[in-house]
């Protein structure tokens, strides 16, 4: 992050002196991978819209002195229909207008989830990645799509940086310190990996090598930073699995 260093590097790049030592090619994902990534991102966007409607309706009820019990997403529309008459007429009208969009969103989520699960069953790489604890079909298939050709990485450790899960490095002269993670790369992939890490660290989850590794980090760093560290660790392991699939072919699914 030193300004003088940055200026020198920019000048070298302008003179095209780096082409012989750096690989400046851009990796283009396959058509299938791009389609899978698009489908999964559309599902995530639909989930967020559904959550927004859910939270907005609950907030309206709370503002007008009513509290809705927590129910499964598929039962929420029925609950609102049964209780909306308790609200003032204009408020009830607003709630009915919001809830109209809720069930179609839930149907779309289920349809896309089923399609992703079906694709994961047919994908060898996804099946391989699902042997990792707490990694389901959505995370496995999306990870395989994000990585594409694993041979483009010189080593599995590079995937942590590629997904923005490594700390930013601030250096200038004799000073050097690390900041928060860079958050470069695919945000949904980071979210999925951190979600897997949090499930591994839950008290009720099975004891395994990943959980023990994460618990050690948790004692030193706290829950949130340990989850991010474990997510990065998972990314490296899963990338290594794609690079050397024969290493884990004999591991039964779900272990």
What does it look like?
With 255 residues, the protein is mainly α. The protein contains eleven helices and two strands. It has a two-stranded antiparallel ribbon with strand order 1-2. A hairpin with a 2-residue loop joins strand 1 and strand 2 (175-181). Helix 5 crosses helix 7 (137-147) and helix 9 packs across helix 11 (223-243). Mean pLDDT is 88; it is low at 246-255.
Global outline: globular
Low-confidence stretches: 246-255
Number of helices: 11
Mean pLDDT: 88
Report on the biggest sheet: 2 strands, antiparallel
Rg over C-alpha atoms, rounded to the nearest angstrom: 23 Å
Q: State the distance separating the first and last CA atoms.
A: 43 Å
> How helical, in percent, are the residues?
55-70%
Strand content: 5-15%
Number of strands: 2
Structural class: mainly alpha
Compressed to H and E, one letter per element, the order equals HHHHHHHHEEHHH
Adjacency order of strands in the biggest sheet: 1-2
């Amino acid at each position: 992050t030193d300004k003088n260093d940055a200026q020198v590097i920019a000048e070298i790049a302008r003179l095209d002196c780096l082409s012989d030592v750096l690989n400046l090619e851009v990796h283009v994902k396959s058509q299938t991978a791009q389609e899978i990534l698009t489908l999964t991102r559309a599902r995530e966007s639909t989930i967020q819209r559904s959550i927004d409607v859910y939270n907005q309706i609950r907030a309206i009820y709370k503002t007008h002195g009513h509290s809705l019990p927590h129910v499964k997403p598929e039962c929420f529309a029925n609950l609102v229909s049964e209780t909306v008459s308790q609200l003032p007429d204009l408020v009830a009208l607003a709630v009915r207008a919001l809830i109209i969009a809720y069930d179609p969103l839930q149907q779309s989520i289920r349809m896309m989830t089923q399609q992703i699960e079906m694709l994961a069953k047919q994908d060898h790489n996804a099946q391989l990645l699902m042997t990792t604890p707490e990694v389901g079909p959505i995370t496995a298939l999306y990870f395989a799509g994000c990585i594409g050709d694993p041979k483009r990485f010189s080593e599995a450790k590079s995937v942590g940086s590629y997904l923005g899960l490594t700390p930013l490095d601030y250096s200038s002269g004799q000073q050097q310190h690390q900041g928060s993670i860079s958050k470069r790369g695919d945000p949904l992939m980071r979210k999925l990996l951190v979600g897997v890490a949090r499930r591994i660290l839950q008290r009720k989850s099975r004891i395994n090598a990943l959980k023990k590794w994460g618990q050690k980090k948790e004692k030193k760093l706290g829950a949130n930073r340990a989850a991010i560290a474990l997510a990065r660790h998972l990314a490296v392991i899963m990338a290594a699995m794609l690079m050397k699939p024969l290493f884990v072919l004999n591991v039964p699914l779900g272990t």
